[in-house]
Amino acid sequence: MRSWKQTVLTLVVLAFVSTTGYKVQAEAVNDTQVLHRTVKVNDLDIFYREAGPKDAPTVLLLHGFPTSSHMFRNLIPALADKYHVVAPDYPGYGHSSAPSVDKFEYTFDNLANVVETFTEQLELKKYSLYLMDYGAPVGFRLAVKHPERVDSLIIQNGNAYDEGLDNKFWVPIKEYWNHRTTEQGDKLRGFLTLDATKWQYTHGVRNTETISPDTWGHVQPLLDRPGNQEIQLALFYSYGSNPPLYPKWQKYLRKYQPPTLIVWGKNDQIFPDAGAYPYKRDLKNLEFHLLDTGHFALEEDGDKIAQTMRSFLHRNVATSN
Q1: Is 69 in contact with 49 (CB distance < 8 Å)?
Q2: pLDDT, the chain, mean
Q3: Dihedral, CA atoms, 36, 50, 194, 159, nearest 10 degrees?
Q4: Which of 12, 97, 145, 197 lies at a C-alpha separation of 20 to 30 Å from 67?
Q5: pLDDT at 266 (0 to 100)
Q6: What is the pLDDT of residue 254?
Q7: Which pTM does this prediction carry?
Q8: Maximum Cα interatomic distance, the chain, rounded to a whole number of Å
Q9: Domain architecture of the chain: domains with CATH
Q10: Coil, strand or helix: which one is 142?
Q11: Is 281 exposed, middle or buried, given 0-12, 13-18 or 19+ CB atoms closer than 10 A?
Q12: What sign does the dihedral 302-304-310-316 (CA atoms) show?
């Protein structure tokens, strides 16, 4: 028969084991738990997702049109056990402030300025850049201005070469660059409809049933906010400021040779794989993957991209930081 002392000791041991186990489990969860935060940047509320230890190498995820940091919702925890992962929403997107076009200048120069200030407020001294769609012109501006801050590049359907814009998708947008009229702008409003948003997520994928409707369910209500179409038209026009900068971005690649990973959805009709191959001209340390999927490659091949990134970052970043 057990004495009361044995019973008490057993309860103490069980409590200790239980408590210790809980703490270990909590720490493991917290390593990859995604936090949702907001910081003031030049009087704007900039929303961002963050996970991982702050003393680990940083991966800065820059989203595309028409989404937000929401596109990285699954990638962030897949990296956060080893890396400090940060994904902001630009002004006009996601949960960040969306001032009207008469109160904020929606240009890629200005988006890059906001993201630069954002990184400085978070004291991100160095980072690997994930460049997707609009994230490419934002990120390349940062890289050219502060090459010493860039550990590596991960490029997913993000353009820096004229070859990447030589397709019919860009014809009406290029016309808008040349003739910024109300009539020409109205022709582009079709890109902001629910059908167009769904098309961006589903075109070129192997199996549309793998694409969650939560994607366009998140994006479209934000596009439909009063005044948001004018924001998007302003950025369609401002995209014309990017091709003249391509030679400068390419010069940056040749001079600094950042380790670069390309994970590109080859069936993308917005940024087709014709824009991926030219990176081979300028980069020596390049890992190149074309994926059999569409524009938002993370939606169908997120696990593959995460695994490829972890291997790439381990070889090129983690061991040197």
Answers
A1: yes
A2: 92
A3: 160
A4: 145
A5: 98
A6: 98
A7: 0.89
A8: 93
A9: 31-320 (3.40.50.1820)
A10: helix
A11: exposed
A12: negative
Please list the alpha-helical segments (H only) found in 33-163. Answer: 75-79, 108-121, 135-145
Please list the residues that pair with 155 across neighbouring strands: 131, 262
DSSP E strand stretches across 3-126: 35-41, 44-51, 58-62, 84-88
pLDDT tens for each residue of the chain, 321 residues long = 444 444 333 443 344 334 444 343 444 445 689 999 999 999 999 999 999 999 999 999 999 999 999 999 999 999 999 999 999 999 999 999 999 999 999 999 999 999 999 999 999 999 999 999 999 999 999 999 999 999 999 999 999 999 999 999 999 999 999 999 999 999 999 999 999 999 999 999 999 999 999 999 999 999 999 999 999 999 999 999 999 999 999 999 999 999 999 999 999 999 999 999 999 999 999 999 999 999 999 999 999 999 999 999 999 996 444
- Listed in sequence order, the residues at least 6 apart from 274 whose beta carbon sits closer than 8 Å to its beta carbon are 163, 164, 166, 167
Among residues 284, 294, 257, 310, the alpha carbon closest in space to that of 133 is found at 294
In this structure, are residues 278 and 163 in contact, taking their beta carbons and an 8 Å threshold? yes
Write the pLDDT tens digit of every residue in 88-141: 999 999 999 999 999 999 999 999 999 999 999 999 999 999 999 999 999 999
**Assigned token pair, 92:** 């006009």
The dihedrals phi and psi of 96, each to the nearest 5 degrees, come to -80, 165
Phi, psi at 68, each rounded to 5°: -160, -165
Contacts of 173 (CB under 8 A, 6+ apart): 188, 236, 239, 240
Q: Which residues contact 321 (CB under 8 A, 6 or more apart)?
A: 56, 57, 126, 151
